[in-house]
From TrEMBL:
<protein>
    <recommendedName>
        <fullName>DUF676 domain-containing protein</fullName>
    </recommendedName>
</protein>
<dbReference type="InterPro" id="IPR007751">
    <property type="entry name" value="DUF676_lipase-like"/>
</dbReference>
<dbReference type="InterPro" id="IPR052374">
    <property type="entry name" value="SERAC1"/>
</dbReference>
<keyword id="KW-0256">Endoplasmic reticulum</keyword>
<comment type="similarity">
    <text>Belongs to the putative lipase ROG1 family.</text>
</comment>
<dbReference type="GO" id="GO:0005739">
    <property type="term" value="C:mitochondrion"/>
</dbReference>
<dbReference type="Pfam" id="PF05057">
    <property type="entry name" value="DUF676"/>
</dbReference>
<feature type="domain" description="DUF676">
    <location>
        <begin position="163"/>
        <end position="221"/>
    </location>
</feature>
<keyword id="KW-0472">Membrane</keyword>
<keyword id="KW-0496">Mitochondrion</keyword>
<dbReference type="GO" id="GO:0016020">
    <property type="term" value="C:membrane"/>
</dbReference>
<dbReference type="InterPro" id="IPR029058">
    <property type="entry name" value="AB_hydrolase_fold"/>
</dbReference>
<dbReference type="GO" id="GO:0005783">
    <property type="term" value="C:endoplasmic reticulum"/>
</dbReference>
Length: 369
């Protein structure tokens, strides 16, 4: 990857700072070391999910500032001049993107909001996982039509490193952390619960993390669990994967147990499948499962990528129906018929990439309808 394509996350931006001015203000922050040479490109901007008085941006630089060239996180306190005003900035900058990274500012009535959470996979990056390989297009950020204005888009990052990792976390631990994070950002009013649809987009191991999170929320906060409406899975190893290459990387390290649990039809995966089938017994849910028979998924080359054009109509159906379906779900008690329907995964759509042998763009197979 070109060092100048490296994406940085900047937290602590005052909410009153106009988005149009953010790039030039950040240019001024780094001007002292480079004159006027560094230009900042703001890739995304959104309110912090827990500290709404501050914004979070993802940015790239025309040339990586010297003070950001070493390490993985930094704290900067600067006073810059903008429009004849002094602006005090206390910024936290990182490249790991752990936790939530908002990528937009939703607009419209709160009652029409949808939370969409993208969870990346094993040994991946929360932003880079969804970005064109060797390019700039990141479909969750760069295609306005992909995410309606009433959707709050959040990237979720967790420690997925394998090389030299000292983490003892397993998939269950990571799923519980995701569940706690989701519960911590959900809207609530005094004495009342506000149902807002949740849609998860997950790649590879991220799909198992999402399933664990849902299982945990059913036990700890069933109202939030009932808000889960859509699941979009990219190449999720529900039945396991070939782990030998990964085991050679993590041999005798604390995270070896995480990889071992992913062996095909392991006891862990069988347990998760059973628990998830019971936990996600919710009517009118939408599940899209995309087989990863191409090396690029879940990356797309651009807005007119044939595989992307196959996926988009299904996303649009989720956005169009989520609010009404979740409101109906909370107005009526779950019926046995709904539970049986959900356990059979009615509405599960399995999409194949457009270039798979023998299939043309737009062709798909639907099961359990």
């Amino acid at each position: 990857m070109d060092e100048n394509d490296r994406v940085f996350r900047i937290s602590g931006i005052p909410a009153e700072l106009p988005q149009a001015a953010l790039g030039s203000v950040l240019d001024a922050v780094f001007a002292a070391e480079s004159g006027s040479g560094i230009k900042t490109t703001v890739r995304s901007l959104g309110p912090h999910p827990q500290r709404g008085t501050h914004m979070v941006a993802t940015v790239t630089f025309s040339s990586v500032p010297q003070k950001l060239s070493k390490g993985a996180s930094w704290q900067l306190s600067e006073t810059v001049e903008h429009n004849n005003q002094s602006i005090r900035l206390d910024l936290e900058i990182d490249v790991g993107f752990l936790g939530f990274t908002p990528t937009n500012t939703p607009i419209g009535d709160e009652s029409d909001r949808i939370d969409c959470i993208a969870v990346s996979g094993l040994s991946s990056h929360p932003f880079g996982s969804w970005k064109k390989r060797g390019g700039r297009f990141m479909w969750l950020v760069d295609d306005d039509a992909a995410v309606p204005s009433n959707v709050r888009m959040l990237l979720y990052g967790y420690d997925t490193s394998l090389v030299a990792s000292q983490s003892f976390q397993n998939v269950t631990d990571i799923g519980k952390s995701l569940a706690a994070a989701v519960q911590g950002i959900r809207p609530s009013a005094e004495g009342a619960f506000e149902p807002r649809p949740i849609v998860f987009i997950a790649h590879s191991l991220g799909g198992l993390v999402v399933k664990e999170a849902i299982c945990h929320m059913v036990k700890t906060d069933p109202r939030v669990a009932r808000c889960v409406y859509g699941l979009i899975f990219f190449g999720v190893p529900h039945n396991g994967l070939l782990v030998d290459p990964w085991l050679r990387i993590v041999e005798n390290r604390p995270n070896e147990q995480l990889i071992t649990a992913l062996k095909p039809h392991s006891q862990y995966l069988q347990r998760l499948a059973q628990e998830f089938g019971q936990a996600f017994a919710l009517g009118k849910s939408r599940v899209i499962s995309i087989y990863e028979t191409m090396t690029n998924l879940p990356k797309f080359n651009g807005k007119f990528d044939p595989d992307y054009l196959v996926l988009r109509p299904y996303l649009q159906k989720i956005w169009a129906n989520a609010v009404a379906d979740i409101q109906l779900r909370f107005e009526t008690a779950p019926s046995q018929a709904e539970a049986e329907t959900a356990e059979a995964f009615r509405g599960l759509v399995q999409l194949w990439p457009a270039e798979e042998a023998g299939r043309s763009s737009g062709e798909l197979r639907t099961e359990f309808e």
